[in-house]
Amino acid sequence: MTEVFTGNFTQQEPIPDAAIEAAVRVMRSGRLHRYNVAEGEPGEVALLEQEFARAMGVKYCLAVASGGYALGCALRALGVGPGDKVLTNAFTLAPVPGAIASVGAVPVFVGVTEDLVIDLDDLAAKADQADVLMLSHMRGHLADMDRLMEICDAHGIRVVEDCAHTMGARWRGRLSGTDGVIGCYSTQTYKHLNSGEGGFLVSNDPQAMARAIMLSGSYMLYDRHLAGPDPEVFEGIRYNTPNVSGRMDHLRAAILRPQLRDLATQCERWNDRYRAVEDGLRDTPGLTVVERPAEEYYVGSSIQFLLLDWAPARVQEVLRRCAARGVELKWFGGAEPTGFTSRYDSWRYAPSQPMPATDRVLAGLIDMRLPLTFSLDDCRLIARIIRAEVGAVFQAETV
Ligand SMILES: *Cc1c(COP(=O)(O)O)cnc(C)c1O
Q1: Which pTM was predicted?
Q2: Same domain, residue pair 215 and 293
Q3: Alpha carbon of 336 to ligand 1 centroid (Å)
């Protein structure tokens, strides 16, 4: 009997009841705008910021409209402007080069290794080209953050971390997003907290955070932020920081606060699923499992594997055969971007040089989401299907 998987790769869990009730309370109040609060009421957004800052062990937090907004806001807060160069990952998602383009800056792409992290030798080689690195922990893979920070500190490079896939992850115990000057997160439906759209910036730098708060559209109401710098810090910037509105509202904040309390548990549940698939894929001929370093605590909300040096037609055949059995895989190496896949050379507004080592990795890179609606049995079944289909195509003389 040929096994088929019938689950849905884009189906997340329902919003928890406590979050639904909190959302209904906000709607009943009619006060959805973050600065629309009753006398003595801090408001859901300010409380969420305080709780997220505490959870990440940082001083300051700002909740915003999306992860992509957080990235653009971080660059503006650091003074990145038109024509400036920003180092960033060649392997990332479109909102990252998009955030760089949104301030008129130009990305300098840094390659990806077979471990799916930023190539630190390539970073060191390009370190004199820019003074900001927008580091994308793409698909949750953390580079050696000690060496990365050494390189950046030695060259005076300020690091903005894109933690869209690493909320709750750690490098040698340090939470992702806290090594750089600003950490950015997304609370979009496919990330680790779900408010449909949404995001955060965190920082310990009062100047950067004060600017981010002004930028997000705080008018002169910044003293209502519970996780912002002291009002004095705003004195020097309040008249010359533009308002680029991108605030979060109370409704989304109400949905997020109960979810944040469960983050650690959810991370463990993702990792159980990740390991079930990983175990099932290990030692499949032709397939390379991405080994995770011992220093990394990851959050396995998606899994990647490599079909290194496979002909494109064979990769496509694996995708086709897996899809026919209900397993939805994404191929980052495809010539045309489809859905959420993309290669650095498909962002044609951003100049890029060919990167052969990176192209080789992307050409073999397969990606799969692991929503928490999948059971561990589902994960084992998915792994059996991938293993069988990769094996069949690998052994075939031709496809
Ligand atoms: C989702 C995502 C973002 C941006 O998040 P949005 O909230 O969708 O704007 C940034 N970087 C990566 C790697 C992402 O996956």
Answers
A1: 0.97
A2: no
A3: 20
For range 46-52, the mean pLDDT: 98
- Tell me if 1 is assigned to some domain: no
Mutate which of 71, 134, 162 for ligand 1 pocket (most atoms within 8 A of beta carbon): 162
- Which candidate, 327, 329, 332, places its Cα nearest to that of 312? 332
- d(CA 24, ligand 1 centre) in Å: 27
Read off the pLDDT of residues 102-135 as tens digits, 9 standing for 90 and up. 999 999 999 999 999 999 999 999 999 999 999 9
Out of 3-7, 79-83, 229-233, 334-338, pick the least confident: 334-338
- Of ligand 1's listed atoms, the one at least distance from the Cα of 197 is 7
Q: Are 144 and 118 in contact (CB under 8 A)?
A: no
pLDDT of residue 397: 79
Residue 95 tokens, joined: 């909102």
Whether 214 and 287 map to the same domain: the answer is: no
Among 232, 261, 290, where does a domain finish? 261
Note whether residue 11 is domain-resident: no
Q: Are residues 238 and 267 in the same domain?
A: no
The length of the chain is 399
Ligand 1 within 6 A of 92 CB?
Answer: yes
Nearest Cα neighbor of 104 from 75, 132, 126 is 75
Structurally, the chain folds into a number of domains equal to 2
Q: Containing domain of residue 370, as a range? A: 263-398
In the predicted structure, residue 392 carries a pLDDT above the cut 90: yes
Q: DSSP letters of 229-244? A: --HHHHHTTTTTS---
Q: What are phi and psi of 340, to 5 degrees?
A: -95, 5
Burial letters 198-209, b for 16+ CB under 10 A, else e: bbbbbbebbbbb
Establish if 9 belongs to a structural domain. Answer: no
Of 261, 277, 292, the last residue of a domain is 261
For ligand 1, say whether the CB of 341 is within 6 Å of any of its atoms: no
Residues 174-209 have pLDDT tens digits of 999 999 999 999 999 999 999 999 999 999 999 999
| In a shared domain, residues 189 and 134 | yes
- Same domain? For 228 and 309 the reply is no
- CATH number at 124 reads 3.40.640.10
